[in-house]
Amino acid sequence: MLPNSPDHADAVAREVERILQSEALARAPAQSRILAFLAQSVQAGNPSPSQYMIAVDGLGRGDDFDETTDSSVRVQVGRLRKSLLQYYRLHKPGAEHAVYIRSGEYRLRLAPVAIAYPELAPGTPEPIRPIEPAMNPQTQPTHHPGQAGVHWTNSWPKYVIGSFLMLVAITIVGGWISDQKVEALSPEITGPPTISTELRVAADLITAKETDDLKVNLSNDIDTLLQKSLVSRTLATEFAASSDYSLLVSISRRNQGEFDAFVSLRDRSGTIITEKSARYSDVDDLRDGISDKVTSIVSPAGSLSEYLAKKIAGKPANDFECFLSIENFRSEGETELRPLDYCLKKFPNGTYYPYFAAREVFLDVQKVRAGGGVIKREQPEWKRIEDILRAAPKNTYANTVAAKMLIGEGSCENARGYAIEGFSRGRTYPALELAIIADAYGCEETKRFRSFWDNRIERLIVANQDSQSPLLRVYMSVSAVIADKEALLAQSTPPILNGSETSELGRFNQEMDRYIQGELLPGDLAHIKKIIPTLIWNEQSRAQIEQKLAQRGS
Q1: How far apart are CA 169 and CA 550, in angstroms?
Q2: Could you say which DSSP state residue 158 is in?
Q3: Residues 212/460/331/299 CA torsion (nearest 10 deg)
Q4: Per-position pLDDT tens, the chain of length 554
Q5: For residues 359 and 171, what is the distance between their CA atoms, to the nearest angstrom?
């Protein structure tokens, strides 16, 4: 169907009529009028109207409308994009094609959902096909690292820092907490719960146009984070009443020009799950900071995941509960993978199964490292990752395990294809972002980006200073060492003693806290050096960390 053909215009009109007859835009008259006008523009042969045309002809504004001072069209079209996304999250298109508006455009397009809204395909991790051994042991996955047109050095900061938030399935997780006296997850939240967002920005924050632009940018930032999280889904404002949780972001400005931000998450009853506040120096700092705060809530080991996991009584009933259990019980600091073993056997066809399989490989690589071994592609763990990738080539965990193994081997250039595929969907996961940054520090190809990474390490440490997730604390501490940011950790909340200090990971965190405070005990440094190779696979990075530890610990 050609874009400018009568059939295309009719298909757009029919799909728009279906949307307007639904409840999707019932409380958004401006969005309804814009959508109807854009459909009429397609039929009239003018599919790309200007902001002025939309304002005057679509919304009935006066002829004096000036888009340079009035951002109302941009704001409403931005909201319409989100509403259309929410509509297709709840409804199938009438004829297998969805209408959508690309960012930065005002043109109504028609395409299959997978193209129009890639975040809905898949909305949750893709199911894994049966894993079969490779016929040729030397065969690479179809998206092998040598992709033409992609260069590690100019792609690294864009993808690693911006999106490498869901990397590898780090291993150290705990056993079941069978005596928890809490009720099980209700059926409606056995999958990722929905979150609606309320954004409050003081009217006198900055100029009217800058305030409107800030609202649009923050709204898009938050929506992206919620949608890409493995433990949440975003819900448009029009459907807020039916959301499982509500996220409030409130911003005001102090006399000195600094911005105060408050972020909270509440359940349907209004009970506060978590709340955070911070101060930022400028708009860019504010946007980055809000993203960090939201990430700390919706990351797999974040506040929401921890809250949901506490509702699971006994063994998980489905693969999503398995995912929550593994992420949450990891925070107990144990070294056994009883939840993972159970989940692999119990839910082989679940949508989260590829992540469990990649985690298992990661654990086995850690065992190799703990035994003094080095990373090589001749190892069976590499073949297993290849098999997982053949069955689930887009899986973020498997791709990033492959990338981390190659970085550990020293083949940083060969890792880029897997890395780019792995973080192309940009899951929110600060612990694993730090894990890959720390490993990649040893790559010659990435030296030019170290100052950029230093800044990112600092931001993540500041944003997660109160975290009690041992996994996150581990990579905060080793990243702080390699980037000379130990002073920031000295200001963070110390690890809480909950019995986990008897495990390898719990003990490591206690020792690193004493190292940061300058209070190392006899034997601490030796044990830290024993654990470091299981966490950092690149030998150059490991050597740098151990050298700095020895210098300060002596």
Answers
A1: 29
A2: I
A3: 30
A4: 445 556 788 899 999 999 998 878 877 888 999 999 999 999 888 888 999 999 999 999 998 888 888 888 988 898 898 889 888 888 888 887 899 998 778 889 988 887 788 777 544 444 444 444 443 434 444 444 433 333 443 444 433 333 322 333 333 333 333 333 333 344 444 688 989 999 998 866 677 788 888 888 898 888 888 887 888 887 666 666 788 999 999 998 877 678 899 999 999 889 999 998 888 888 888 888 898 899 889 988 788 988 898 888 778 889 999 988 887 754 444 444 467 889 999 999 988 999 999 999 989 999 999 999 988 999 999 999 999 999 988 787 888 888 889 999 999 888 877 876 655 554 567 777 788 888 888 888 888 878 888 988 888 888 777 776 777 888 899 999 999 988 887 766 665 544 444 467 778 888 888 888 888 888 999 999 999 999 999 999 999 999 988 887 66
A5: 6
CATH for 152-170+349-553 is: 1.25.40
- Euclidean distance between CA atoms 422 and 145, whole angstroms: 11
Please give the full DSSP string across 499-536, using - where no structure is assigned: SGGGSHHHHHHHHHHHHHTT-PPTTHHHHHHHHHHHH-
- What is the C-alpha separation between 292 and 464, in angstroms, rounded? 8
Beta pairing, strands 194-201 & 245-253: parallel
* Phi, psi of 198, rounded to the nearest 5 degrees: -115, 120
CA dihedral defined by 394, 395, 396, 398, rounded to 10 degrees?
-120
Report the predicted TM-score, pTM, of the whole model to 2 decimal places. Answer: 0.63
CATH class of 187-306: alpha beta
Helices marked H in 199-348 — which ranges?
208-228, 283-298, 303-309, 319-329, 338-346
Amino acid at 180: Q
Enter the tokens of residue 311. 């509702």
- For the chain, the structural domain boundaries read 6-120, 152-170+349-553, 187-306
- Contact call for residues 282 and 310 (beta carbons, < 8 A): no
| 508 vs 474: CA distance, rounded Å | 8
Distance of CA 249 to the CA centre of its chain: 18
Dihedral angle sign, alpha carbons of residues 274, 280, 283, 287: negative
- Residue 351, classed as helix, strand or coil, is coil
